[in-house]
Amino acid sequence: MTEITKNTDQPDSQLPKAIENFVLHWGEMGTRWGVNRSVAQVHAFLFVSTKPQTAEQISETLGLARSNVSNSLKELLTWQLIKRVHVLGDRRDHFEAEADLWEMLMKIAVGRKHREIDPTIEMMRQCAKEADEDTKVTPLAKERITEMLEFLVTMDKWYMDMATVPKNKMFAMMKMGKTIMNFVQLGSSKK
User: pLDDT tens digits for 107-134?
Assistant: First the structure.
């Protein structure tokens, strides 16, 4: 586990220690998932905030440059992980995070699918077609490219099927864990 330390150049945080640690750790995890640390920290802060926050409040609380916060908010809005809200009597934009964990994770999954999986499947289709038409490509290479494509297409179909399962049923299946294998084995033995 990565040790969390404070930047001694920054003033003491206004956040409770647990929240500060959560924000710092979420930022660290974000970098491991390919997300900018500041984007992840802003998201974490908004996720645990009890009221909508302005960019200035976020910047001050997290000790981030205002421009960094602005860019982070734009990215989070693009992913639909936060929304802009208006507060009566205040002309500034305020922001709040998607509070439903399931919705948040589904939005992240959809975004990653569109940005990473869909283009990869298209590229693999093109590679499979080119490999099939090129006599210099070995049968082993053709087979492995085809297997990779089939795997990605199968995983994509599974994801699309699972995305339609109601949240309560998905949680019930998740809680079943390995028990669900008994149903799969039972179903395959009937064939």
Answer: 999 999 999 999 999 999 999 999 999 9
H/E element, 54: strand 53-54
Per DSSP, 165 falls in state S
Distance CA 68, CA 125 (A): 39
The residue with tokens 């421009």 is 67
Tokens of 13: 């945080």
Tokens 């439903």 locate to 100
Cα 30 to Cα 5, 22, 23, 93, 124: the distances in Å are 17, 12, 10, 25, 28
How many Å separate Cα 167 from the centre of its chain? 17
CA atoms within 13 A on the CB side of 122: 7
Tokens found for residue 132: 């099939």
Give the global pTM: 0.76
**Distance, C-alpha 3 to centroid of its chain:** 23
CATH architecture of the domain covering 17-97: Orthogonal Bundle (1.10)
Query: Residue type for 108, please?
Result: I
* Segment 64-81, tens digit of pLDDT: 999 999 999 999 999 999
Q: What is the DSSP letter of 98?
A: -
Give residue 40's Cα distance to chain centre: 10
Cβ atoms of 62 and 95 within 8 Å: the answer is no
